[in-house]
Design brief:
3 helices
Length: about 130
């Protein structure tokens, strides 16, 4: 047997791990965001605090210290007396942050409300509230 034949006979194919059926380039972020009902409830609670119908202390575990302080003493221009959340949209910014845009119906006019939420230690917390 010549060298080439011996080399061919001694060669055994290596096996590779099976290829995945589909390639996932990024993690599925949709499973990590809070559900729409929770976001809507938090938004309505913020509206009620700004309208004077709810105590800010009910949100202490859901908002940052800065937002909590701002909700405790809202300025007259930020008050949403009798406000009701009409619609809510969320946009994921990254794995640990989302922005919320809400339309709030008030007796005198319709307002917009924006919230930014960050996840820390598996808990979502509102870090910014803007009334437009």
């Amino acid at each position: 047997m010549n060298n080439a034949a011996a080399l061919i006979e001694s060669w055994t194919p290596t096996t590779h791990a099976p290829r995945p059926r589909h390639l996932q380039l990024v993690p599925d972020l949709a499973n990590d965001v809070p559900d729409d009902g929770w976001v809507r409830g938090l938004t309505q609670s913020v509206v009620e605090v700004l309208g004077g119908q709810r105590s800010a202390s009910t949100l202490v575990s859901h908002v940052s210290p800065v937002v909590f302080q701002a909700l405790r003493t809202p300025s007259a221009g930020l008050r949403l007396q009798g406000g009701r959340v009409l619609s809510v949209r969320t946009q994921q910014l990254g794995t640990d942050s989302i922005e919320v845009a809400a339309v709030v119906g008030c007796p005198e006019r319709t307002r917009a409300l924006a919230l930014r939420l960050y996840r820390r230690h598996e808990r979502w917390r509102c870090v910014c509230v803007v009334v437009l």
